[in-house]
Design a protein that fits this description.
alpha/beta, Spore Coat Polysaccharide Biosynthesis Protein SpsA, Chain A, 7-stranded mixed β-sheet, about 20% strand, globular
């Protein structure tokens, strides 16, 4: 089973288009799948859009009436799909954004790499073009400087991207190592993506990457990206030591 997991907050203009595209991609791919959406206290049309798709696609919804943020939304999704997975050594979790800035076509490439023996496939944006907001481009230039060796020694080119595929067993093992009431993720945004990679790295035997087009879709809302807040979060992760380097082909 492929669990395509999407955290959303006020993505009413894009989430329907994204779900429809995923449906088309997965129908052609021919693998069993479920789309898991965490609705992080949306106040726009997002709940109505999700309800319309509930009978058309295999959709599992989680709703929070209080805003929890990206990091906790990803953690809730991880915990949910791990609990739902019947075959963790075969099942796959794919994480991507709900604003249609990451191409669902890459899901097929990622899953095939998992089927070929990888435990984790990290999305790597092939380019960061003019369609990407300027603060995002600036942060991508500054992140390697802010993180230092934590960035340069990461087992993937882009440790900040949240577009990834995980073999479910590595997520299950990472959760198993937590103490009672310990959170898997403590950061938000890009920091949460980096943290999750740090958490699963000890259990990943082989890691691969998959390129995807970033910023190639029309933006339907103003960017909510906050450059200063993001950089402050990354500063807090500077100096973090990678537990080990997974095998790369």
């Amino acid at each position: 089973m492929i669990y395509i997991s999407i955290p959303v907050h006020n993505e009413g203009r894009t989430i329907g288009l994204l779900l429809w595209k995923i449906r088309k991609v997965m129908a052609e791919f021919g693998r069993p799948y479920e789309i898991c959406v965490f609705d992080d206290a949306s106040t726009d049309e997002t709940p109505k859009v999700l309800s319309r798709y509930a009978g058309l696609i295999p959709l599992h919804q989680i709703r929070s009436d209080e805003r929890v943020g990206y990091g906790r939304a990803i953690e809730r999704l991880v915990r949910s799909v791990v609990d739902r997975s019947a075959y963790p050594k075969r099942d796959v979790m794919v994480t991507l954004q709900g604003d249609f800035t990451e191409d669902p076509e890459a899901i097929v490439v990622m899953v095939k790499k998992i089927e070929g023996g990888a435990d984790l496939v990290a999305g790597n944006p092939s380019s960061v073009g003019a369609a990407v907001p300027a603060p995002v481009r600036a942060c991508r230039r500054l992140a390697p400087i802010v993180l230092g060796r934590t960035f340069s020694r990461a087992p993937v080119k882009d440790s900040l991207s949240g577009f990834r595929a995980y073999r479910m067993i590595v997520l299950k093992k990472a959760l198993r190592e937590l103490q009672d009431d310990q959170m898997l993720l403590t950061s938000g945004g890009w920091g949460a993506n980096l943290e999750l990679l740090l958490r699963v790295a000890p259990y990943v035997r082989r890691i691969e990457e998959a390129e995807f087009a970033m910023g190639s879709f029309r933006r339907e809302r103003a960017s909510r990206f906050r450059a200063i807040q993001t950089l402050r979060t990354l500063v807090g992760l500077r100096g973090t030591v990678w537990p080990r380097t997974p095998e790369r082909p």
